[in-house]
Design a protein that fits this description.
The structure is a homodimer of 283-residue chains. Chain A is of the alpha/beta class and 283 residues long. Chain A contains twelve helices and seven strands.
Chain lengths: 283, 283
């Protein structure tokens, strides 16, 4: 997805929020804002927003010297999700359509996103998303791809959400590789978060190599790229990965809740809609 | 009021909103954002936010070559308010406390503010504000100052709101000078808006000389400064004027609805609260 003009004030808002999370030192926060402001003239509208995010969050790490400000929140989110795991597992097992219920639950987990300026309550959001209509629903195509797939590449998004991803991976029952970010960025899932979520029990965990809050192929390592090209089914979770991967040429299924109106518009849906959308998918 | 760190992303948001209002040319909007971003490092937290606003909105005028993008909206707001005028006039006349009702109506007009990112419906807001409790209510002091006053300086804020200000001026019944901005900035009231609101019938209209979306004494002309120092009662409408005047040494009564959480916090109230607050007011 390209960068829209309205992403630019949002970058500044994100930088402020993340800097405040990383430090209480007002001078450092001001320095983050000053340098983010200076970056703006170099932002091309032709790159994806998380490519700019990559520079912004690195700059925040450099200035605040805090490499993982969201660590405690990530752990709390993972623990909260793990507590829900047994009940959700049962709910999936007893559902009329276990796969679809697992997809809905995985999307509900996508509300645990500290990159957007929204509060959430995972229990309430779960209840809502379990009933909500999909704004894009390529479920038949998804099932067909899944049925034929010998391997699944599942590109994770946030920590905590990762526990819900595990439920979907278990429900799909295929050999799966779960992809995490290379370094902590916002509350995105890194390797230790994936392990804490129990994903090591149900999948191989690899890093994409991306330090951005998204999967941006030009920032990814060759091992990931090979997996990305060769996997039979690629599932991409969340907004950041959509922003990074929406224009790739291979089939990808995006699972997300549209929490930002720019991304919603790019997807052709409304804010707060839930989405199961395949690109380059033939039947 | 000093500039808080969280004002800085808001400046960028305001610049984007105002630039989009002023032009459809995406390159010009990007240029506004680039140059606003560059300005950030020169923003001191020790100046008031509208002093920075002064540079931002001038920059938007210079880049877009549109000196009054809100002209049509201002006229529409004035006409909408003029249609309500007879009914509101009657309401004040039949109220138990006409002065207090007129103050509430003048505050309700303060929702017509295109500098903040909020939509409004003047009819609904009127109904609510006519019943709402004040979060700061220096009414006794206000009445005492008004009773003794031979002259009132009424510093206006937005166009449209100005019609509601006229009702309060008529209700107070004192010789009044109504103060407008020197040039169009956002939807703030300039001389022709004040005349279109009928304020010329009930007051002398003067410009403060300020080109900022606020009254900032260092930007004001000497004629205004003299009036400001000599008037028996100074009424300041709206957030911008509060930001500019909250630390002056003379008595001022602020009438506003707190639409921004930073200003609300500075005032010691909550967002959406209504305020009648006197500073340097002795009884």
């Amino acid at each position: 997805m390209k960068t829209y003009l309205e992403c630019i004030p949002c970058f500044m808002q994100q930088a402020y929020r993340a800097a405040k999370f990383a430090t209480h030192d007002e001078e450092k926060i001001k320095k983050v804002l000053d340098s983010t402001g200076e970056m703006i003239k170099s932002i091309s509208l032709n790159v994806t927003p998380p490519e700019t995010g990559n520079h912004i969050y690195k700059n925040i790490r450099d200035i605040t010297l805090n490499n993982d400000p969201y660590k405690d929140i990530k752990n709390a989110n993972i623990n909260e999700a793990l507590k829900l795991y047994p009940e959700l597992k049962m709910r999936i097992q007893h559902a009329d359509d276990p796969l679809l219920t697992a997809i809905r639950i995985a999307i509900a987990g996508n509300v645990m996103d500290l990159g957007v300026n929204k509060s959430y309550n995972i229990i309430d959001d779960l209840q809502e998303i379990l009933k909500q209509d999909f704004a894009a629903f390529d479920y038949d195509q998804f099932k067909e791809h899944l049925q034929k797939a010998k391997s699944v590449l599942y590109i994770g998004d946030n920590a905590g959400e990762s526990v819900f991803d595990r439920l979907l991976i278990e429900t799909m029952g295929k050999p799966t590789t779960f992809v995490v970010r290379e370094v902590p960025v916002i509350n995105d899932c890194v390797e230790e978060d994936a392990v804490a979520s129990g994903l090591d029990k149900v999948s191989e965990i690899i890093s994409s190599g991306s330090t951005a809050p998204a999967t941006i192929l030009s920032l990814c390592n060759s091992f990931f790229i090979e997996k990305f090209n060769q996997s039979d089914l690629v599932i991409s979770k969340g907004q950041g990965n959509y922003e990074g991967l929406s224009e790739v040429s291979r089939p990808v299924f995006f699972l997300l809740k549209a929490k930002c109106k720019v991304i919603a518009r790019d997807l052709g849906v409304s804010e707060n809609d839930i989405v199961l959308k395949g690109i380059n998918v033939k039947l």
